[in-house]
């Protein structure tokens, strides 16, 4: 690492907000890595001594793997040294301006834990939950400091998947959301604001829709588990690694997403009806989606974007092929 890089890392570490991670399971360790890599001092707490004892080794292993792949611009020891182990909750929260809760997905447990966090944390600290499906209203609605509570749900692992869903409750203050957006963005994450409290948010609702259909296809004898995974891995997943479902169908059909809805909408409606789902793509809904897509990509740029999509897929395929080529050469 260059001298300038070392100075910059030191400046970041001095200026960065102290972070408390409550829960030292896989997500807690992963969050500690995210924030420490961004220069934050981190206090990691778990009520289970065995978890706390295992966390430093797990952190070192993940950091070493990132370093081996060129994804860590500081020595492993430098980043790991920013993470301290706190045996007491109060000690972890002392001085923290952001608290990231990573406890199991049980509403009563979270309710009790957030009562303690609200009582012990600095009044200016943001209290964020890594909840995968539970909304903040289900466990924080009665807190005196509920205005500083929101969901910050990561993909797993967050040090490789930068998206983080920020889900405020109706009682969450706007400044709480703004602080969280700024913090996660500065830490290299990609915050997505979820505009209404719905169970599962965006990530798990989209993932759940795919999983529900996948289970049905196996149940009905249409496909094996490996068949489904292959279609996702070698088909949809390759495209979705570069573009999402709306852009996929927008680029798949000349004339864009409105043309796709006209041609394929009835078939998708029939597929949904097979599963008892009645969510038609109404003309008004299609017009709204079309307007948002055209704001992102005017039709006159459609051809160029299709070329970009194909070149992106080619580059990904070439990267995937290189290790095998190198092994053959060896």
From TrEMBL:
It holds the Pfam family 3HCDH_N. Residues 200-291 form the 3-hydroxyacyl-CoA dehydrogenase C-terminal domain. Keywords: Oxidoreductase. One of its GO terms (molecular function) is (3S)-3-hydroxyacyl-CoA dehydrogenase (NAD+) activity. Pathway: Lipid metabolism; butanoate metabolism. Residues 19-195 form the 3-hydroxyacyl-CoA dehydrogenase NAD binding domain. PANTHER family: 3-HYDROXYACYL-COA DEHYDROGENASE FAMILY PROTEIN, LAMBDA-CRYSTALLIN HOMOLOG. Belongs to the 3-hydroxyacyl-CoA dehydrogenase family. NCBIfam families: PRK06129.1 (NF004783). This is 3-hydroxyacyl-CoA dehydrogenase.
